[in-house]
What does this fold into?
Amino acid sequence: MKVDKSRQLFEEAKRLMPGGVSSPVRAFRAVGGQPLFIERAQGSRVVDVDGNQFVDYVCSWGPLILGHAPASIVQALKVAVERGTSYGASTELEITLAKMVAEAYPSIEMVRFVSSGTEATMSAIRLARAYTGVEKIVKFDGCYHGHGDSVLVKAGSGVLTLGAPDSPGVLNAAAQNTISIPYNDLKAAAEVFDLHRTEIAALVVEPVAGNMGVIPPKPGFLAALRKLCDENDALLIFDEVITGFRVALGGAQQLYNVKPDLTCLGKIIGGGLPVGAYGGRRDVMEMVAPIGPVYQAGTLSGNPLAMTAGIEMLRALRQPGVYEQLEARSQRLAEGLSRAAAEANVPVFMTRVGSMMTTFFTEEHVVDYCSAKTSDTGSYAEFFQSMLDNGVYLAPSQFEAAFVSLAHTEEDIDLTVDAARKAFGTIAKNESAR
Ligand code: KE4
It folds into this structure.
């Protein structure tokens, strides 16, 4: 596959931007090879600067559940941009999108728009600490909530000990109020509340994990977290930046029927433009400035173009049959990939919730970060490169999700499964040669 232009642009980019990218995972460091520079995209396809076309399952890391450049969003933006790009003042568009979010999420009685998922989770955690008056936060190993200091934290040496910074520059003081425990581990969750009781301001969780690969909650896991928070006056924060409007119109809280106190949203609600949001119980949200003392602000929060894209996105997702189509296409893909791996005798563990899924290159049952990390990332890298050579663009990391959109056709799925058959065959051949 010709990648000369991407290579040339990457060399230039590396002189100007750290790693030549605007976000680390795009540098392909987990899979090797030449990071692609994308020139245009439409529907289920992206085209790079060398003219290579791919069926895209990155979907901008989740937002593009309608596919690339859907006509409804493009048309609405063309009209909106003529009216100006930003006012730094309120617009009716924010009310419209806020209503649509609240209709889909009964737990969200009041919402604040921001410009990224990181801002949403960072603000929700600040708010939870202010509302409860205590400082500790519980998160789960392998869950990612953006790059805010409180959550760039890895598990302490002992399961229940206070966290340690997961990045230089994050102060111990910031990390030490965060405890990270294994996902799907109710015993650890109960123990951390036994140990820290009412000192815990909030427990923040991806209700379906998407950042260590896709890992569903075990039956009863989310309901048990709800109960633990209730018993200890802690707030339950669902980080639905990925799962919001993805696994159901009403997100994971609808799918699993568990009501959080605060929800963080992002990705899909921006329709591909920068939007994040946090919202939930009115008594909690009323603590947010300017009506409350908890400060949070943003120059481009509620930006009219981003609101326009979000409104058109949610309008499309509220149409009948949307999630049924996503489910059918996603099931076809997951079954095809499983079959292709089995035919080549390559051990994989497939996980899927709706239109987000991961093929783990391990024989283990993946239920948490530890089991996810048993995956053979070398095999995943081989798989990724072979799929790329055969016209399929997956996440350049074993520990991310593949996303199916409404634009993915049965032909796209079948092309993908054929490519996977070749990729698994290559892996099996290389394995036997080793
Ligand atoms: P952003 O700040 O990237 O908009 O959102 C942070 C965030 C918060 N919560 C969850 C559950 C998330 O998945 C994310 C961001 N997701 C990553 C990939 N899984 C974005 C891709 C990237 O970092 O480049």
Observations:
- The pocket of KE4 is lined by residues 23, 25, 61, 116-118, 121, 144-146, 206, 210-211, 239, 241-242, 266, 276, 400 (CB under 6 Å).
- Residues 410-433 form the longest helix (24 residues).
